[in-house]
Design brief:
Rossmann fold, 8 helices, alpha/beta
Length: 238
C-alpha cells in the first residue's frame, strides 16, 4: 500500500446553517492524480482551504504528510504549507514583479536565503514548466497559459508532497488547458500527488485519475473516470 499523503477523517464544515461537509473521510496516496468535482457552490474550494489551513473544520482530523492540519497552531501553518504547492484559477502573480521575482518571493517566504541557491532553483522550475527565457518578463506580457505555467513553477518551488489546483484551467482556452494538463501529468508522473478541482469534465476523459464528487455535503469516490461517468449518466437519466 502506498503512503498516505492526505488523510481526512470525519471532517465537518458549515457556514451558518448550510452544511458543506458532513463527516467526510478523504484519503490521497503518494502518486495519486485526483479530481474534485461537483456543482458550482457545493464547497470544493472550501474543502481545499481546509487542507492548507485557510479554514478550520467544525470537527474531524486532517493530516498532511504526517503533520496535523487540524488542530494546528498559527505558527506552524507556514511549515505545513511548505509541503504544499497551490495553483489558483486567477494565477495570483504580482503584476509589478518579473517571473523570477514572483518565484523568488515564494522562496524567501519559505526560508530560502542563499542567492546562488535561489537562482539555481528558479532556473530549475522554469525549465520544468517550459518557461526558460521568460524569467525577466512581467506577467502582463505573458499569455494566460504562460502565466499559469509560472504559477505552477512557483507551486513546485519547494518540491511539495501535494499540489492543489483550484480550477487551474478556468481562464484558459482549450489549447492552453490541454498543454497545462500535459504539464500537470508530467509533474504527477515525476512523483508529486495532485488534487485538482474542476468543472471541465472533458479533461477527466483525456487525463484519467481518481474522481471525488462533492454532493450533498458528502464525498462520492470513483476509482476511475469510467465509474464516474457511468454514475453521472445515471443521475441525468433518472
Amino acid at each position: 500500500m502506498n503512503d498516505l499523503v492526505l488523510d481526512m477523517k470525519q471532517v465537518s464544515l458549515a457556514f451558518d446553517s448550510h452544511k458543506v461537509l458532513d463527516k467526510v473521510d478523504f484519503q490521497l496516496e503518494k502518486g495519486d492524480f485526483a479530481y474534485l468535482v461537483g456543482r458550482t457552490g457545493v464547497g470544493k474550494s472550501s474543502l481545499l482551504k481546509l487542507i492548507y489551513a485557510d479554514q478550520r473544520p467544525e470537527e474531524g482530523g486532517i493530516v498532511l504528510g504526517g503533520q496535523k492540519v487540524n488542530p494546528i497552531s498559527i505558527k506552524n501553518i507556514p511549515y505545513l504549507r511548505r509541503k504544499l504547492g497551490i495553483v489558483f484559477q486567477d494565477y495570483q502573480l504580482l503584476s509589478d514583479r518579473s517571473v523570477a521575482q514572483n518565484i523568488q518571493f515564494a522562496l524567501r517566504a519559505s526560508g530560502w536565503k542563499n542567492k546562488a541557491d535561489i537562482k539555481k532553483r528558479i532556473s530549475e522550475v522554469l525549465m520544468q514548466v517550459g518557461m526558460t527565457g521568460k524569467s525577466h518578463a512581467k506577467p502582463h506580457l505573458l499569455s494566460g497559459g504562460q502565466q499559469q505555467r509560472v504559477a505552477v513553477a512557483r507551486a513546485l518551488i519547494n518540491e511539495p508532497l501535494l499540489m492543489i489546483a483550484d480550477e487551474p484551467t478556468g481562464n484558459l482556452d482549450p489549447e492552453a488547458s490541454y498543454q497545462l494538463m500535459k504539464l500537470l501529468e508530467q509533474i504527477n508522473k515525476a512523483g508529486t500527488t495532485i488534487l485538482m478541482a474542476t468543472h471541465e469534465y472533458g479533461l477527466i476523459k483525456h487525463f484519467p485519475g481518481k474522481v471525488f464528487e462533492l454532493e450533498n455535503a458528502r464525498l462520492n469516490f470513483y476509482p476511475s473516470p469510467k465509474e464516474f461517468f457511468s454514475a453521472f449518466k445515471s443521475k441525468i437519466d433518472s
